Amino acid sequence: MTEYRIQGHESLKREMMEVARGERPAPRDAAMPSFDSIDALMRLLTPANRELLATIRDRKPRSISELAEMTGRAQPNLTRTLAKLEAVGFVRMRLVERRKVPTATVRKLRIEIDPFSQNDRLEIA
Question: Which distant-in-sequence residues (6+ apart) come within 8 Å of 104 by Cβ?
């Protein structure tokens, strides 16, 4: 299971400065990937992108071209979207005989929101 931090830039900057000044220890999860906010995550998980992930999971396309045909999306747009999903670990791209084959790597997301601090977390199963 992969965990992500949800932490705004200002909060991250403040935390880094406090650590640099020796005012607090470095957090154990400092190397953990992060999203700027829940909103940033939700902008990535649009209904169209959720449908795309479901298509990849269920229909197992053998190339980006085949995925473009399945979804009716333009290939350049699809390639950019897949790059974003791959960057956060939701999709893995494998090279098979000169073709990039997308595979959905995420099954479920669990968001833990701490209403009293900025310690929100995202778990990916």
Answer: 53, 56, 57, 90, 91
Total residues belonging to the chain: 125
What total of structural domains would you count in the chain?
A: 1
Range(s) of the domain holding residue 57: 2-124
Using left for φ > 0, alpha for ψ between -120 and 50, and beta otherwise, residue 95 falls in beta
**5-48 pLDDT, tens per residue?**
666 667 667 777 877 888 888 776 555 566 677 778 888 889 99
Give the confidence band of 4 by pLDDT, cuts at 50, 70, 90: low
Where residue 42 sits, what CATH number does that domain have?
1.10.10.10
Phi and psi angles of residue 107, each rounded to the nearest 5 degrees, phi first: -110, -45
What is residue 30's DSSP assignment?
Answer: T
Q: 97 by DSSP, 3-state: which?
A: coil
The set of residues, in sequence order, having a beta carbon less than 8 Å from that of 93 and lying 6+ positions away, is 82, 86, 100, 101, 102, 103
| pTM of the predicted protein model | 0.72
